[in-house]
Amino acid sequence: MYSIEIQNLSKNFPQLKTYSDIVLHPFTKQETMALRNINLKIKQGELFGLLGTNGAGKTTLLKILCTLVLPSSGCALVQGLDVKQQAKHVKRLIGYVISDERSFYWRLTGKQNLLFFASLNNILADKVDYLLDSVGLTQFDANKLFKDYSTGMRKKLAIARGLLTDPEILIMDEPANGLDPLAAMRLQSLIREFLVEQQHKTVIMATHDLHQVEAICDRIAILDKGEVKASGKVGDLNLMEILSNG
User: Angle at CA 196, nearest 5°, toward 135 and 101?
Assistant: First the structure.
């Protein structure tokens, strides 16, 4: 069974016009292509990697799956639900883990942050302690101010927040970005062993790190300039050759 099916998906963003464009071509619509004819199927319970450089379209694709951005054409189905027509139901199935630290309150503790987001979703406070422990944040860590957290601790708290609603699918945007090699390895183990193998989540992870997808992903898709250059099992793809030909 497929958790996600993407069919001929494209996304264009309006392009800002210069003054001369407004004067000379006032009715001409200018757009920038972010995604072009994306076709992907992601199996239930697998760890799927989206590999590509900055600007390849990874984040745009993730935001479409999370119903934060609407596609220009084509469709994306999450557990058979259309992200455009059934957005409210899709949101209940997905947890979104982003690297943006500004989405947390820096003068609250890690636990207070999580309690706040739990209250927004009518989730019992008891679950907060369980999630903090599950992602490897001790009671001492939980009671430290977020501003004093290391990068690795902030990543873990972001994962805990993404798990608050117990989603079937977890979408992660550059989860190991900014981590040192040892911290990155620990986070990879958390994603693979806890989220996928123990919790049986479907995890979609966007990254520019080739070694990361080789280490933990079941299958991957390589995005370049908004298009899928290749997809399949990690062991079946010559990643270096594909990337060098880009």
Answer: 45
